[in-house]
Specification:
The structure is a homodimer.
Chain A lengths: L2 H11 L3 E4 L17 H13 L5 E5 H5 L2 H18 L4 E8 L3 H14 L4 E4 L5 H8 L5 E7 L12 E2 L2 E2 H9 L8 E5 L4 H10 L4 E4 L9 H8 L6 E5 L1 H4 L7 H23 L1
Parallel strand pairs in A: 1-2, 1-10, 2-3, 3-4, 4-5, 5-8, 8-9, 9-10
Antiparallel strand pairs in A: 6-7
Helix pairs in contact in A: 2-4, 2-11, 5-6, 8-9
Chain lengths: ~270, ~270
């Protein structure tokens, strides 16, 4: 998928919501455990009920890998289901991969070709030649970890070098590896002062922002600093949507939570125009 | 497996060789392509012929994931085969994972519990709370990327902060997250001046050193600076061993290459005693 197609969907749906399918066998409704593939059954219902409110689904690979080969099969069935039934939806493999060049190329083949995701999150710690193999795939988007919102960000990302933070130095370097048509950045939602700083450095790139709950508490604050003239953000919400209820109506409850965020996003977009 | 058990094997076999099973469908002997699972058939032969010369096998997850669900099945069959037939061998999932805490816990479950690897390589970019969930698993080893030998290391790892390199700052911080019984570090073999520096900072930790070819060119140089009183290194070689030949005798050719390195290692160990 091209970024232009994502942008069209954002405008059609008045939404820049991404729903995180962090599907955990211990958290899905108990009655689904009788199904052949409970993880896929859960995802299918969530997707069928929420797709009109979101423009993207993000699959966190860890949740699938924790169930080994069966988990990978559930992940493959889920991405195939989205691609076959809702091809307009942007798909993200939240895998945080990267390695030396020939190995990164293998990861790119895995997620871009074999699994057919539109995009993949990448850990930039190993630098340019670990990232560039991903950028060689046409109509695929490489999403670099820009700044994460966890405490451990202090250990490397928030150290300073050349009078700037390491994560800013990385963003400055990485601007030369690709462009805003084939790269995005993950930026944690909890640090609005950093979002401003990042937006100044990369005014045109899309940002993938996790960490905004169904409460919408931070949504306005994030949008104030992260939106650009081309919208330029996707906001992810996972648990507060997909685990909104554990009874038979779980997918409807998830849709209601997604709709609450979509309505807020629609209002923000209206205000900007 | 405990580190003590690895050390016993190193002494029994006079070897600190790790063989990297970076198994690529395009590089294995053509006659194997008729097998049900060519990747597993190749690995099984390599393992059966080389196990007496090495103390560890490292599976690079990218090579398996590039074949999707089938690739994960080949990886699972391979690790099960090693655990069932050669339980004395130390196994490494070279996966370079890490994410926020609850997600890292899922990756730990995947590789330590579900797949039953002894150890896992971790990308430390997200810091302490992304690494600690791995350290909570008993008798499992977390292997942090210390310093990689690719060009891109310049982009983050070799930047300076507080008058030291970022990779050194990371190593200093990470010493507090675990100890030499549950942590190792990956250190690229091409930079002996850095190996010296790292060894001074962490005298007791095992180092996993990739990048030494069958030529043994750098082996003596690496050992000179990396060996400690408790041996303290595992040296990985992948392609030069497993792709030594593509004819019917490929596994014997691989064994011969592994033996060349084992003999060199044995001589180095003899010299130290």
């Amino acid at each position: 998928m091209k970024l232009d197609d994502l942008l069209i969907q954002i405008k059609i749906k008045s939404s820049f919501l991404c729903i995180g399918l962090d599907t955990d066998m211990n958290k899905i409704p108990k009655f689904l455990l009788n199904e052949d593939d409970p993880i896929f059954s859960f995802n299918k219902s969530i997707i069928d009920h929420t797709n009109k409110y979101c423009v993207a689904y993000k699959l966190n690979t860890a949740f699938y890998e924790s169930r080994g080969v069966d988990g990978w099969a559930s992940m493959k069935k889920t991405i195939d289901y989205i691609n076959n039934n809702y091809p307009e939806i942007f798909t993200i493999a939240d895998a945080k991969r990267a390695d030396i060049g020939n190995t990164s190329k293998m990861y790119a083949q895995s997620f871009f070709t074999e699994m057919n995701f539109d995009s993949l999150t990448i850990n930039p710690y190993m630098g340019s030649d670990s990232v560039k193999p991903f950028l060689e795939f046409k109509n695929k988007i490489t999403i670099l970890l820009g700044l994460t919102s966890n405490l451990g960000a202090e250990d490397i990302q928030l150290k300073t070098s050349n009078n700037d933070y390491i994560f800013m130095e990385m963003i400055k370097s990485s601007k030369l590896w690709g462009d805003h048509n084939n790269m995005m950045y993950v930026v944690g939602a909890t640090k609005t002062e950093f979002i401003q700083k990042i937006r100044r450095e990369i005014p045109d790139h899309f940002l993938l922002v996790p960490g905004v709950g169904a409460q919408g508490g931070d949504l306005n604050e994030v949008c104030k600093y992260a939106l650009n003239d081309n919208i330029g953000i996707i906001i992810n919400s996972s648990r507060s949507i997909i685990y909104a209820s554990t009874n038979e109506g779980f997918a409807i409850a998830a849709a209601n939570q997604a709709k609450i965020l979509q309505v807020q996003m629609s209002a923000i977009l209206d205000e900007r125009n």
